[in-house]
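Q: I'm writing up a methods section and want to include an example of the input and output format. Could you take the sequence below and give the corresponding predicted structure tokens, formatted cleanly so I can copy it straight into the document?
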Amino acid sequence: MAVLLFHLRNVPEEEAEAVRRLLDEHGLATFETRAGFWGLGVAAIWLRDSDELPQARALIDDYQQTLGEQVRREHDALVERGEAPTLWRRLMRQPIRTLLFALLAAAVLALSLLPFVWLTD
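A: Here is the clean output for your methods example:
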């Protein structure tokens, strides 16, 4: 019986392709489902044989562990070079966009709290 192996929602295409390749290289039979036009379905990779689940899960866990370590190393390298993304750098590169987002967040906060302020009068 088929078993859900890997959700694809909000997964970058490069990572999804790497997982597909990894499963294919180890001869695991899989199929994919899409979320569909309205996003109501489950975008995922399914394993056809549930008996292979421990092997597939171990492969994916190892891959994600390796990927996490690689991303942390890349981030640490950016921090060492002083190129890591920060709010201040974003403000310096895109001041208008950053200020517009800050104003939008303040407007949402004000609209959310306004009814409570009116109740206290």
